[in-house]
Amino acid sequence: RQMTPPPKPPAKAPGSPPLPRQNSKTAPPSPPKVIVDKSGRVSFNRVGFLGEGGFARVYEVKDPRGMRYACKVVTKSSLKTKKAKTKLYAEIKIHRSLQHPNIVHFQDCFEDELNVYMTLELCTSGSLMDLLRRRKRFTEPESRFFMVQLIGACHYMHTHQVIHRDLKLGNLFLDTSMNVKVGDFGLAALIEKEGERKKTICGTPNYIAPEVLFDTANGHSFEVDTWSIGVILYTLVVGRPPFQTKDVKAIYKRIRDNEYEFPPDRSPSSNAQNLIQQILTPNPSERPTLHEIVDHAFFTQGTVPSYIPTSAHDAPPDFR
Length: 320
Ligand code: ADP
Hints:
Blueprint (H helix, E strand, L loop, with lengths): L33 E3 L6 E10 L4 E6 L5 E8 L6 H15 L9 E6 L3 E7 L6 H8 L4 H20 L2 E2 L8 E3 L5 E3 L6 E2 L19 H5 L8 H16 L9 H9 L13 H10 L10 H5 L2 H4 L20
Antiparallel strand pairs: 1-2, 2-3, 3-4, 4-6, 5-6, 7-10, 8-9
Helix pairs in contact: 3-5, 5-7
The chain binds adenosine-5'-diphosphate (ADP).
GO cellular component, one term: spindle pole
GO molecular function: ATP binding; protein serine/threonine kinase activity
Keywords: ATP-binding, Kinase, Nucleotide-binding, Repeat, Serine/threonine-protein kinase, Transferase
């Protein structure tokens, strides 16, 4: 397989959450305390701030019946270019077409003079990234539980011709019952023709598949999500991503050379190691299918808990 030299790094920094794009001087004003649709069709009370991403700020809102949602706010001033508009419309079109218990539900979308708003299912327990920071790493039963839900959501997306392209712990949110909800469809792509290949270099360095970086002529497809699933599994059981190092270029070199190891002091089970190795195969056509992944001994020979107790926020639960 022809390997081309690494292209320039994607916009996001390794592992760390994306930097807020605007500094305090140019930060947009907060959306109104009462958010009302241009046509007066809907109204929400803004009750809290949840977080900030590459181009959006996310608030907690309540509708007149007291139902709580997350509300993703994109300022119209950031949508001046055709490219920015196309990207946001693609995110909305893709996200609103998906309905699955492990995908953040897209409730509605509307605008006022200053902003575009997307109301989403509220995930009150943060992301798996936040949880991993507190917990350091997860037990294998917990990891199986999170992975089964993630793979289910991913299988659903793929059967609906959607590639997520940015699966990572920071985009896996948790509801109050510790169920996984895949969010942030900002980099998702729709495969409209069978066999179509995508050429845009995107993703987050630690989780990016080698073909996205080094096979730009051929493009990439659904298997990039499978690769990220392998990186996620490694990260859950080891506590840090497999190719992590000091700078982005070095991460890309390690991805290109398939260079990672299982630290002896926190070595996962041999089944986990074997599955991770199978998924992190450089050639995308040799990666296991999602069905093959859930049929692997790591899942079939170990306990998959039916739920995760909320005590798991602070300490490993005991699944015996
Ligand atoms: P961007 O697409 O700009 O990267 P994200 O969709 O990743 O934005 O959201 C940014 C932050 O907002 C997240 O890291 C998280 O803290 C918070 N957030 C996003 N969606 C939700 C949600 N559905 N429920 C709770 N918090 C959310």
